[in-house]
Every structure is written in structure tokens, then in C-alpha cells.
Design a protein that fits this description.
Helices cover 29% and strands 25% of the residues. By secondary structure, it is an alpha/beta fold. Helix 1 packs parallel to helix 2 and helix 6 packs across helix 7. The chain binds pyridoxal-5'-phosphate.
């Protein structure tokens, strides 16, 4: 059945091993982040076998279903309404609100457990975290005093909302906060967690990153790219995930629609370039599954447009294509996220 997403488990394993090779010499552990593939079981099994320091996801639901002995980390700030579920599903969560941490403390007490907390510090990207100019050490002290909370350490996130790059200068802000907290608490922090795949560029260039001892990596493992500049990481596979879609119509038609032009699907007002008569294929996949801008064709074709259930392609250069032929694409991060989320796309683990 098509469309289907081919998932190559051994290529994913290879990327895990390459990341380990990169992190080990720099004294870094990493969290394998599973959210982009919704913690799909076959890949979680590979993570279990390769055993990084932690496994992490942004959704409580994904953590709940995960079978693993690795420490489970919740990446998205917990909802106060889900405190019970959070302490049950996750060993550690990333947090920035003391009020929420009090709720987690109470929930952990009910279960008779302790829950680990990493306090997020915002060093300029303006997504989650306590702003770095606030009194972070006092907050750390308050959290550390909670009976059923283990204050694991601090973390930061970059290149997410603001696109702020991890540079020595930006990361230095976290180093100073770490030192202040350690002085206030009178002990070393167990975890200083840097950001995401955007840190790998700096790590590859300089072989170390500030005072971090941990990174949280999703995209680099899934797509083989760092996210500061979007470069392919040498030695990593960029085709762990390949989308296959089949041709449901193929015909020679003009490239310009004929008639007075109004609105197209999704209220868009389309623009067209006249390229004369063109070999056009309709693929049996649409925007309910993925938007065309999130697909990079592996075959020699150009995507022209889409509606809910169709992608239309210029296949003039593919002479042998016929009805039922299959074409392939590499998805972007956003593409992978939506393909994994679509029930209409078959997932084939090989
Ligand atoms: C998703 C996420 C990551 C991983 O980001 P990638 O760019 O996929 O490596 C790290 N930290 C947090 C808080 C996240 O939500």
C-alpha cells in the first residue's frame, strides 16, 4: 500500500553510533529524542540497544507507551493539569515554573517516588526557560528543598524560536549560572543539558561545548543534519526515512489552467508559469499527510502543487513513469513530523 514511509532501522542505529563517537570524546552524554517519529517502537528498540544516557520525548503519551530501561525525560514543560501523569510516565522533566514543580512534588509524594527536574534557563532564544538575568540560584535553592523532587541541574534551548545560534558567548551565560548555582547549593550539578541538534556544528568544529555534559538530539539522528546551518553531518545517514508515493494519473496537459482563475484548494490564489504541454503526474498523497514544500524529490521531478489528497508533479524528465510507478522523497523535519502523524501513511520498518 502507498503512500508509505520506509524507515531504515540500521541507518538510524548508525546515526546513534556516530553521535556517540562525537559526544564521548567531549565528555557529553546525550538524550535520544523520539518526538519526530512519535516514539515508534522499532526505533525505541534500537535506542535501547545502543543505550545512550537518556531517552526523551515532548509528549506524555509517547513516554507512557515507551518500553525502556533508560531514564525517560519529558521535554515539553509539563502542564499543571497533567502532574500525576507526568511523574508516572517520566523520570525527569524539563521545567521553568516553580508552581508547576510544586505540583510535580505533590504528585510524586502521592506515588511515593521522587521526580527529577532540570530547570530550563533562557539565554536569549526566547522560548522556554527562566530568563538568565533573573535570580536563578534562588530558584534552584527553592526547588532543591522540595521533598519529592531531585534537582538534577539546568538546561537551555537555542535555535528554536529566535534562531539564536549556540556560540561561545551565548553559552557563556549558562556557564556563569551553573557556577553560581553550584556555589549556592554547595555541590556539583548532575546535569547541564545544552540544546538540540543546532549544537553539533560547534561540537564538530571545536570538539567541546562550554560546560555542558549533555545534549538533547532528535533531528541529527533522524535526518543526519545539524540545525544551526542545516548542513548534512559527515558520516551520518540522511535517508533513514524515505517516502514512497505512487502515480494515480499521468497525462500530457498544458502547464497553464484554462479559464478565469479564482481560488484553488485551501483558499490559495495560484500563479502559473507557461511551460507549454507538460507530462504531469498525480500522486496518491496530499496535504492531509504532508505539504509539498516539506518533500525533497529523490527522483527527477518537480512538485507543482497540491490539494488535500493529491500532489501534482512535472515528470517530463521521467520517461518511463506510468500509472502505478512509485517515486521517492526525503522529508524535511516538518515533513517527517506530519508523515508520522498521518494515519494514511504506511510505516514500513526495514
Ligand atoms: C525537540 C527538542 C530537542 C531536540 O531537538 P532537535 O533539533 O530535534 O535535535 C531538544 N530539546 C527540547 C526541549 C526539545 O523540545
Amino acid at each position: 500500500m502507498y503512500p508509505r514511509l520506509i524507515v531504515d532501522k540500521e541507518k538510524y542505529r548508525h546515526n546513534l553510533q556516530k553521535l556517540k563517537d562525537l559526544c564521548d570524546p567531549a565528555g557529553l552524554s546525550f538524550m535520544a529524542v523520539t518526538k519526530v517519529f512519535r516514539a515508534a517502537e522499532p526505533l525505541v528498540e534500537i535506542i535501547n540497544e545502543e543505550a545512550p544516557g537518556f531517552i526523551a520525548d515532548s509528549r506524555v503519551e509517547n513516554l507512557q507507551k515507551m518500553q525502556t530501561d533508560l531514564p525517560k525525560v519529558l521535554l515539553r514543560l509539563p502542564s499543571v493539569h497533567a502532574a500525576d501523569a507526568v511523574v508516572e510516565a517520566a523520570d525527569i522533566s524539563l521545567n521553568s515554573e516553580v508552581e508547576t514543580i510544586h505540583r510535580l512534588d505533590a504528585a510524586a509524594e502521592k506515588l511515593g517516588i521522587t521526580h527529577g527536574v532540570i530547570l530550563m534557563v533562557d539565554i536569549g532564544d526566547l522560548r522556554e526557560g527562566v530568563y538568565y538575568q533573573e535570580d536563578v540560584p534562588s530558584l534552584a535553592k527553592e526547588i532543591d528543598a522540595m521533598q519529592h523532587i531531585r534537582f538534577e541541574g539546568i538546561g537551555t534551548n537555542l535555535t528554536c524560536y529566535g534562531g539564536v545560534l549556540p556560540t561561545r558567548e551565548t553559552l557563556g551565560r549558562l556557564d556563569r549560572i551553573k557556577d553560581d548555582i553550584e556555589t549556592t547549593l554547595g555541590r556539583k550539578l548532575a546535569v547541564v543539558s545544552g540544546g538540540n541538534s543546532s549544537h553539533l556544528h560547534l561540537l564538530m568544529q571545536e570538539r567541546s561545548i562550554g560546560s555542558f555534559d549533555n545534549l538533547r538530539i532528535g533531528e541529527a539522528l533522524a535526518l543526519g543534519r545539524e540545525t544551526a546551518y542545516g548542513e548534512i553531518l559527515t558520516g551520518f545517514h540522511d535517508d533513514v526515512f524515505v517516502l514512497e508515493a505512487d502515480v494515480i494519473e499521468i497525462k500530457d496537459k498544458p502547464s497553464l489552467p484554462e479559464g478565469k482563475i479564482g481560488m484553488a484548494a485551501f483558499g490559495r490564489k495560484p500563479k502559473f508559469i507557461d511551460k507549454g504541454i507538460m507530462r504531469r503526474a498525480i500522486l496518491g498523497i496530499g496535504e492531509q499527510d504532508v505539504v509539498p514544500g516539506d518533500l525533497q524529490p529523490i527522483d527527477d521531478l518537480d512538485l507543482l502543487g497540491s490539494s488535500s489528497d493529491h500532489l501534482i508533479a512535472d515528470v517530463s524528465r521521467m520517461k518511463n513513469l506510468r500509472v502505478g510507478s512509485v517515486v521517492s522523497f526525503k522529508p524535511t523535519y516538518g515533513g517527517l513530523l506530519s508523515l508520522m502523524t498521518s494515519d494514511y501513511v504506511v510505516k514500513a520498518y526495514v
